[in-house]
Amino acid sequence: MENKSFNFYQFLEENGYEKEVIRERSGETFATNYQKNIAPETWNAITIHKNKTFSAAGPSCGLVYKEQIQPQTYEEAKAIIDLIEKV
């Protein structure tokens, strides 16, 4: 069941992810990168692309999602970060 009020960006920030916006020369957003330091000198990343899809990678699993539709529920988002936060 789709949850219209779920906000993936807010979920990431509430779970300790740092946000960095990458812009084109024109000032338009190219992508938004969310990263979390999950162990000393060990980071994972979720990139939100211009078309609103996401890619995600973790230190133990590499790139596990590439240009996928964003999660629509807390449970879907939690499954993603649980996977990419494994060290």
Notes on the protein architecture:
This protein is α+β, with helices and mostly antiparallel strands and 87 residues long. Helices cover 21% and strands 43% of the residues. The protein contains two helices and five strands. Strand 4 (54-58) and strand 5 form a beta hairpin. The protein is globular, with a radius of gyration of 13 Å. The model has no long low-confidence stretch (mean pLDDT 94).
Give a topology summary.
Blueprint: H1 8-14, E1 18-23, E2 29-39, E3 42-49, E4 54-58, E5 62-68, H2 74-84
Antiparallel strand pairs: 1-2, 2-3, 3-4, 4-5
Q: What tags apply to this protein structure?
A:
87 residues, alpha+beta, five-stranded antiparallel sheet
Poorly predicted segments = none
How would you sum up the global shape? globular
Would you count the extended β strands for me? Answer: 5
Rg, Å, rounded: 13 Å
Number of helices: 2
Spatial order of the strands forming the largest sheet: 1-2-3-4-5
- Helix and strand composition category: alpha+beta
Strand content: 35-45%
Averaged pLDDT? 94
Largest sheet entry:
5 strands, antiparallel
Describe the structure in brief.
The chain is α+β, with helices and mostly antiparallel strands and 87 residues long. It is built from 2 helices and 5 strands.
